[in-house]
Amino acid sequence: MWTFQKHLPFNEEPNLIGHWEYFYLHSVGCVGNMKLWFNRTLDYSLSKDMNKKTLTINDFEKFELSLEKVEKMADEATEMEKYVIQGSYFQIE
Which among 37, 44, 53, 55 could disulfide-bond with 59, CB atoms 3.0 to 4.6 Å apart, if both were Cys? Predict the structure, then answer.
């Protein structure tokens, strides 16, 4: 979160770390999901207002994953972990 926050191209640094739980929930704790989400929000925000001074949570809400999608992704990750732990996904010889 801090790294993303520090690299946003705005005059005012947004306080995203203060909302870490929100970002964790809607990204399933996956940095890749978060990066895509940040990129979508940034691209959209800059295309609408080139003079924008910072991003707010409202900007991110437009592109957040729905709770239904988040739940599905979390379930899929949990299932995959079970396969890996049981050794049934990868055959090691």
Answer: 55
Residue 89 has pLDDT above 60, yes or no: no
Residue whose entry in the numeric block shows the structure tokens 């001074």: 53
92 — pLDDT class (breaks 50, 70, 90): low
Burial class, 42, CB count within 10 angstroms (exposed 0-12 / middle 13-18 / buried 19+): buried
Which residue, among 63, 81, 62, has the nearest Cα to 73 in the 3D structure? 81
* DSSP state for residue 5 in the 8-state scheme: H
Using the predicted structure, report yes or no on whether residue 87 has a pLDDT greater than 80: no
SS3 labels along 21-78: HHHHHHHCCCHHHHHHHHHHHHHHHHHHCCCCCCCCHHHHHCCCCCHHHHHHHHHHHH
Nearest to 19, CA basis, from 35, 31, 1: 1
Output Rg (C-alpha) for the chain, integer angstroms: 17
